[in-house]
Amino acid sequence: MLLILRDLTGLRTYTRGRLLDPNNADGRVTELLRANELDTDDAISLILNTTVCRALAYYDFALQTGDPALVDIATGLLAGGLRLAADSGTVSCGGSFVFV
């Protein structure tokens, strides 16, 4: 919603908070899965949401610095997220993200 409203400051704040939250860290997700405290669908959802936030952070930094390599990283993250979503059957992928 923040992206649709073009609230880039709010989007940065949300993205930063999500990425710095230790509960969203890759290692924490791994721990929860191994301990059977997180089911696979919830883990995939968490991973996909975090991946989108990472991509947005890279893209935002690319806009600030003018570094096109960061855009490539952001695009690669989103492509990987699409593959994960398609492979897991989480969403039907037609080549684009749908943000709710």
What does this structure look like?
- With 100 residues, this protein is mainly alpha-helical.
- It contains four helices and no strands.
- The radius of gyration is 14 Å and the shape is globular.
- The termini are close together.
Q: What is this entry, summarized?
A:
The protein has 100 residues and is mostly helical. It is built from four helices and no strands.
The number of E-state strands comes to: 0
**What's the Cα radius of gyration?**
14 Å
Principal-axis shape equals globular
What share of the residues does DSSP label as strand, in percent? under 5%
The main pleated sheet reads as: none
Please give the count of helices: 4
How far is the first residue's CA from the last residue's CA? 7 Å
List keywords for this structure.
single chain, 69% helix, 4 helices, 100 residues, mainly alpha
Helix-strand blueprint:
Layout: H1 8-20, H2 26-34, H3 40-65, H4 68-88
Helix pairs in contact: 1-3, 3-4
